[in-house]
Inverse folding.
């Protein structure tokens, strides 16, 4: 018999306004000992220090604030740390604008594909699906702000730090906290509810599109995600990126679309893919399998470096699959 499951995943919000967060700097590394750190002169949001940080010097914003969390400790130390990867000439602060719930680059998948440009997970599946758990960082250790906008947002569970919320608890928390900014309609912005069990062995959609409450023009979930993602598409590492199902950006990858005929279980495809990756161990290649909105099962291969031959991996997997 085929085992059926909801297969919800945990997806973690990773966008903060913390100065020790490597994702906020162009170099992609956190500031460290002996380096000169220049914070943006006019940041779009208050900045935050949530942990211990040792730097050579720190230039504060001209117009803006830096908030210290309860565990913050700032030490000025000119001693150069050889393990410090932060550039000696400094690095540009890159976090600007507002952070939308629908931003696929703001979420980390539990498989921990940390580099968003190399992740094989389609953008439309990086934002929590209805069967997923959405996790936000501990509010005392980080400063984040999430803009909630249509279409309807629904998740199986939601936590901030270690606290889990129900729909009504979250609504009052969102009203009292500036961490979640809703639209002006004043409706409950996030529904925390049990997802329908998935009885389809070929897999179930990430979310069913339902017109948002009182939203005259209907925006699909995929359209909302790609609207946020497209202006921020990373520079491809190859010369021939391609459009792939569920991705908002052309990607250096391979996309194998499989007709399931209502009989092929998604769990079987995932097992075949995991077995293939374990046996072949293609260097610097990542893979992911999912049922997409075109009602096909897709197996994706991407590379984490120029050495990753995702095309050869896809070809070999395809040959194994049709045996």
């Amino acid at each position: 018999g085929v085992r059926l499951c909801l297969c919800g995943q945990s997806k973690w919000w990773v966008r903060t306004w913390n100065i020790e967060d490597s994702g906020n700097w162009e170099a992609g590394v956190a500031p460290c000992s002996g380096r000169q750190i220049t914070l943006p002169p006019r940041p779009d949001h208050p900045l935050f220090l949530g942990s211990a940080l040792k730097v050579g010097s720190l230039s504060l914003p001209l117009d803006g604030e830096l908030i210290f969390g309860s565990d913050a400790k700032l030490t000025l130390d000119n001693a150069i740390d050889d393990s410090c990867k932060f550039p000696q000439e400094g690095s540009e602060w890159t976090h600007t604008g507002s952070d939308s719930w629908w931003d696929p680059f703001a979420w980390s998948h539990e498989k921990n594909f940390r580099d968003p440009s190399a992740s094989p997970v389609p953008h439309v599946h990086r934002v929590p699906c209805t069967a997923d758990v959405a996790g936000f960082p501990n509010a005392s250790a980080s400063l984040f702000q999430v803009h909630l906008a249509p279409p309807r947002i629904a998740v199986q569970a939601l936590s901030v730090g270690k606290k889990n919320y129900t729909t009504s608890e979250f609504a009052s928390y969102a009203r009292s906290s500036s961490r979640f900014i809703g639209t002006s309609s004043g409706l409950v912005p996030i529904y925390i509810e049990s997802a329908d069990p998935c009885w389809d062995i070929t897999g179930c959609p990430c979310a069913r599109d339902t017109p948002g409450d009182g939203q005259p023009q209907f925006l699909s979930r995929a359209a909302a995600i790609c609207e946020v993602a497209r202006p921020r598409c990373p520079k491809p590492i190859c010369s021939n990126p391609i459009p792939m199902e569920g991705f908002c950006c052309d990607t250096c990858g391979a996309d194998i679309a499989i007709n399931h005929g209502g009989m092929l279980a998604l769990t079987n495809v995932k097992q075949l893919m995991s077995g293939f990756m374990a046996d072949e161990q293609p260097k610097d290649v990542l893979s992911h399998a999912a049922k997409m909105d075109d009602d096909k099962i897709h197996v994706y291969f991407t590379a984490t470096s120029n050495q990753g031959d995702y095309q050869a991996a896809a070809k070999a997997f395809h040959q194994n699959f049709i045996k």
Summary: Residues 266-280 form the longest helix (15 residues). Helices lie at 123-126, 167-176, 221-229, 266-280, 310-322.
